[in-house]
Design goal:
By secondary structure, this protein is of the alpha+beta class. Helices cover 43% and strands 24% of the residues.
Length: 324
């Protein structure tokens, strides 16, 4: 049996500029961080000729083409899987559709496991590129490249998205003291709402392809906020980063009417009145996790406990996709 895992992630700046509809014209930049919440994939060779897939559903088929799970089907085709004696099972620490990049974590963990079972040694970059090939090219999802790369690489990582599609990956230059303070003061709350990232990002993608001036200006500004966040981290100025989070959230909401709702706005305002210096929705928006930066964590936790939201405590994960 082979067990592989990939980390989930949070975005720390520049989110949205990793979609081809933007970076192919203007180049993109963002900062992403892997966290110690994971998607796990187990592979087991079956005795009889059969393909068994266990996730939120159960599939028992005879050929790859019969598989309904699109990522599993395309991953097996991509690695040129040659036999039909396999059982694939997935598990996750956090539900899908919550804005932490679970789809790409699933894809990279699956590819890592399949390559390992085949005896192939693939680089981290190759793993990320293959995950992009499956999700973006073969399945035509209107998503960006952040999730595949951070799941593969891990750490707190700066990504530059070039016009030709190449992604330059560079670890954030952050001191240990700043890293520990950032880790201690970031707090995640699950809103209870799940959604498909593609449904939110499709609107941004369509407007970018149509060269909508407001969308382009919005993403230019958000990219600049990503660079400002990078500078704040390198200086150890986390209060400035918190301020940037607030500005980022205001601009992010302008991209789509489905980005927020009255209840999310109410929770956000409550947090800022009770110890949070900054905050934003993680992922595409519309649900999932609210993330806050707070120096007064006790006060914030006391206030947010009354909302009924679940806090998810985490640490940063410096490793990417791996076989256990």
């Amino acid at each position: 049996m082979i067990i592989a895992r990939s980390p989930l992630r949070i975005s720390l700046g520049g989110g949205g500029t990793d979609l081809p509809s933007y970076y192919e014209e203007h180049e993109g930049f963002l900062i992403s961080a892997a966290i110690d919440k994971y998607v796990y994939i187990t592979l087991h060779q079956t005795f009889e000729e059969e393909i068994i897939i266990k996730y939120s559903r159960y599939e028992h088929v005879k050929s790859i083409d019969e598989i309904q799970h699109p990522i599993v089907r395309e991953a097996l085709k991509l690695v040129n899987w040659s036999n039909n004696n396999i059982e694939i099972c997935s598990m996750a620490d956090i539900p899908a559709g919550t804005g932490l990049g679970s789809s790409s974590s699933f894809t990279t963990a699956l590819l890592r496991a399949l390559h390992t079972m085949q005896g192939n040694i693939v680089s981290t970059r190759t793993l990320a590129e293959e995950a992009c090939e499956i999700e973006m090219n073969r399945l035509k999802e209107p998503i960006g490249k952040q999730d595949q790369y951070i799941a593969a690489y891990g750490g707190i990582t700066c990504m530059n998205f070039h016009k030709d599609g190449y992604v330059w990956v560079d670890p954030l230059n952050i001191s240990k003291e700043t890293l520990y303070n950032l880790e201690d003061n970031l707090i995640l709350y699950f809103t209870g709402f799940s959604r498909s990232a593609g449904s939110i990002l499709a609107e941004q993608d369509t407007k970018s392809k149509a060269k909508d001036s407001d969308m382009t200006a919005n993403l230019h500004f958000v990219k600049d906020l990503g660079y400002q966040s990078k500078a704040a981290f390198e200086k150890g100025d986390l209060n400035t980063f918190a301020d940037i989070m607030n500005v980022h959230w205001e601009y992010k909401k302008k991209r789509s009417g489905g980005m927020s709702n009255p209840l999310i706005d109410e929770w956000y305002d409550l947090a800022l009145k009770n110890g949070a210096l900054g905050g934003k929705m993680i992922g595409a928006g519309g649900g999932g996790f609210l993330m806050f930066y707070a120096n007064d964590k006790i006060r914030l936790r006391k206030a947010m406990a009354k909302t009924g939201m679940t806090e998810v405590r985490f640490r940063f994960e410096m490793e990417g996709s791996k076989v256990l």
